[in-house]
Amino acid sequence: YRREVNKLTYQKEIVSQIPNSHLLKENSGRITKDTWTIDHIYSVQDGFNNNVPPEIIAHPANLRIITYSENSSKNSKSFITLKQLLDKISEPLEKDFLDRITPKGSL
């Protein structure tokens, strides 16, 4: 599950839609506490536990850029509920985006 979420998360068309994604280019190549990383606001672990399709967990509305140390301290904690996430991605523009990246019949 995590591998599939990460595969979707790191697609160029997804990363480009994350606010402040340009910060990822500032990384030096080695991981430090200040390295920028992509965070899943509704966690991958909660997505797995609640049978949420990977496409929802990897959706740009569920992603943000934070430091490695912030992400590590967050661990697998979610900062929004599943309902809040689904509400964020229910707009027509967002649905069109999901339709483009989701294989037919997987949602």
Q: How would you characterize this protein structure?
A:
This protein is mainly α. It contains 7 helices and 2 strands. The radius of gyration is 14 Å and the shape is globular. The model has no long low-confidence stretch (mean pLDDT 86).
Q: What would you call the structural class?
A: mainly alpha
- Strands across the major sheet, in which order? 1-2
Q: Kindly estimate the percentage of residues that lie in beta strands according to DSSP.
A: 5-15%
How many beta-strand runs? 2
The number of helical segments is 7
Radius of gyration: 14 Å
What is the ordering of alpha helices and beta strands?
HHEHHEHHH
Mean pLDDT: 86
Give a quick account of the main beta sheet: strands, pairing sense, barrel closure. Answer: 2 strands, antiparallel
Helix content: 40-55%
Whole-Å distance between the termini? 15 Å
**Overall body shape:** globular
Low-pLDDT regions: none
Keywords:
mainly alpha; 7 helices; globular; two-stranded antiparallel sheet; 2 strands
Q: TL;DR?
A:
The chain is mainly alpha-helical and 107 residues long.
Write the topology of this structure.
Blueprint: H1 2-9, H2 12-15, E1 36-40, H3 44-49, H4 54-57, E2 63-67, H5 68-74, H6 82-88, H7 92-101
Antiparallel strand pairs: 1-2
